[in-house]
Specification:
Elements lengths: L1 H23 L6 H25 L1 H24 L5 H20 L4
Helix pairs in contact: 1-2, 1-3, 2-3, 3-4
Length: 109
């Protein structure tokens, strides 16, 4: 069960990475970034599939989506200078609370 959570964390890390790679690929016009995007997406999905075996698809995917969304917002703010305001931080914190709640209620605490 512990390995499943490690797989899920790794997939969560890859989620915003492939989104950044997708942007860098310029709609798949830049071959190197396009290949990196495909590898990152497939790796993310593979790790998610390993996590789903022990964690379950609902819990695993909801955590992936939540952490991936937060990671993508953070990447946008750091790499692209996307604006982040107090309201966004508030709602991102709700996602964090939700992910923690899902983790605690899934019996994997």
């Amino acid at each position: 069960m512990e390995m499943a959570w490690i797989y899920l964390i790794a997939a969560c890390i890859l989620e915003p990475i492939w989104v950044v790679f997708l942007d860098k690929s310029d709609n798949f016009k830049r071959i190197g970034w396009s290949i990196a995007t495909i590898v990152a997406v497939l790796s993310c999905l593979f790790l998610l599939s390993l996590a789903v075996i022990d964690i379950g698809p609902g819990v695993a995917y909801s955590i992936l989506a939540g952490i991936g969304a937060i990671g993508t917002v953070v990447a946008g703010a750091l790499l692209y200078k996307d604006p982040v305001n107090g309201k966004m931080v508030f709602f991102l914190s709700l996602i964090v609370i939700g992910v923690i709640g899902i983790r605690l209620m899934s019996g994997g605490a």
